[in-house]
Amino acid sequence: MTLNQEKHILVTGFGGQGIIMAGDILGKAATIYDGKNATMTQNYGPEARGGACSSQVIISTGDILFPSVSEPQVLVCMSQEGYTKNIKSLRRGGTFIWDTDLVKTRKPDATWKTYHIPATRFAEELGNTMMANIVMLGFVAAVEGLVQIDALRKAVLESVPPNTKDNNAKAFDRGCEYGEAILKGRAKQEESRDQA
Questions:
Q1: What is the Cα gyration radius of the chain?
Q2: How far apart are CA 152 and CA 97, in angstroms?
Q3: Any residues with CB less than 8 A from the CB of 76 and at least 6 apart, and which?
Q4: b/e map of 109-136 (b: 16 or more CB within 10 Å)?
Q5: What is the C-alpha end-to-end distance of the chain, expressed in Å?
Q6: DSSP for 61-75?
Q7: For residues 55 and 25, is the Cβ–Cβ distance under 8 A?
Q8: Does the pTM exceed 0.90?
Q9: How many CB atoms lie within 10 A of CB 55?
Q10: In sequence order, what DSSP letters do the residues of 149-189 get, joined into one string?
Q11: DSSP readout, 89-122?
């Protein structure tokens, strides 16, 4: 991010996935460990667990004048309803990230950067689907660079119950490694195209 630049992030899913917690951790990483300013607002559907919810995060190197995200630059979808409701709000040139286990997408806008990860499956393989939000945070840290990876990892470990820290660290690292592997694969593809 350049000086005084804001990033508007919308994380969507359903109640019980830790969507609000993910937004809170992202904001905490930015402010406490990465020296930036951040705001986080949340939105729940009329139902609690299982209903639609979202977390709106703004990260900035300057002052944040208004905490609402109406046209996100980064959209993270962890439910089909979250995708359907919010995909049209993503800005041209934005980044679209989704959980392939839970979201079926249509052809994305050609200006978007797109990334996807089977976050729920990875969390299940690690023993608890409730960690899918942490897998996703690791992935987002790797592919989007909103905050430093170490800052986000510290914020995750500070935010989860002490007896779950090891598993959450593994979940974060799994998402991060997957994201780094995707970036390396894309870089190799571009290199091959340049040499052709």
A1: 16
A2: 17
A3: 9, 10, 11, 12, 22, 97, 98, 136, 140
A4: eeebeebbbbbbbbbbebeebbbbbbbb
A5: 33
A6: SS--S----SS-SEE
A7: no
A8: yes
A9: 26
A10: HHHHHHHHHHHS-GGGHHHHHHHHHHHHHHHHHHHHHHHHH
A11: GSPTT-EEEEETTT----PPPTTSEEEEE-HHHH
What 8-state DSSP symbol labels residue 8? E
Say if residues 162 and 48 touch (Cβ distance below 8 Å): no
Question: What length is written for the chain?
Answer: 196
28-85 pLDDT, tens digit each: 999 999 999 999 999 876 555 667 899 999 999 999 988 889 999 999 999 999 999 9
- Cβ contacts of residue 117 below 8 Å, gap of 6+? 97, 99, 100, 135, 136, 139, 175, 178, 179
How would you list the strands of the sheet with 52-60, edge to edge? Answer: 37-44, 52-60, 6-14, 74-77, 95-99, 113-117
Domain ranges for the chain: 6-195
Name residues whose C-beta falls within 8 Å of residue 62's C-beta, 6 or more positions apart in sequence.
3, 4, 5, 6, 37
Q: What is d(CA 8, CA 23) in angstroms, rounded to the nearest whole number?
A: 12
CB 130 within 8 A of CB 13: no
Beta carbons of 118 and 99 less than 8 angstroms apart: yes
Tell me the CATH number for domain 6-195: 3.40.920.10
Q: Which two tokens stand for residue 21?
A: 């917690």
- The pLDDT value given to residue 80: 96
